[in-house]
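Quick one, T. Sequence first:
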Amino acid sequence: MASNMNPKIRPRQQGTILALAAVALLSGCSTTHEPVSDPDFAPVRPLSTQPLPMNDGAIYKAGYNVGLFEDIRAHRVGDIITIILQERTNATKRASTTTAKESEMDIAVPTLFGQPVLHRGNPILNASVAATRDFTGEGDSEQSNSLTGRVSVTVTEVLSNGNLMVRGEKLLTLNQGSEHIRISGIVRTADVTPDNTVLSTQVANARIVYGGQGVLAEANSKGWLQRLFDSNWWPF
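Structure tokens:
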């Protein structure tokens, strides 16, 4: 049976080429992308406390009290708060510049001993300079963003003034890829509603990340060669 491989290629090289081709084929056939969790947005477990020793013979035991009128709003490490995303930004910028400058200078015909300097009947020392410069520039820029939804986060730290450090993420695996929403920031306890929700516009130092990976994300991104042509490293 005749082989289609180039006889100049060694068997070890043939195996390497076949392995690379198989990896490329499998990666091209893959349609599901599992989202990767970010450690910076990982949840925090509540602080564990050691149970106090039992003291038989007493009705009330220290450390086992139950707050009958305690507020159920999140205020401890590990509690859950739902962030209601209501982000909307609009920015418009326009610039226009126009400059013009004209210069003109004439030098009269000089004389030597009361007579003009001529060469074959034509003056040779007269001169005139004229310059004109014009510049017109105009630029427009407009950007609009909108993000709505809900993301549940956990309290990671309670600051000395009572504010809550929160962080969390939501990972979605779809048919042709995956998406993720990550958020972190500082929340005032007064802004937390009784149902443990807070608006994203009330989160201080908010860090909101929305992205994805997969077929749709790859179709909307440039290749590495095109990015090279569009970068500052390309001299032309």
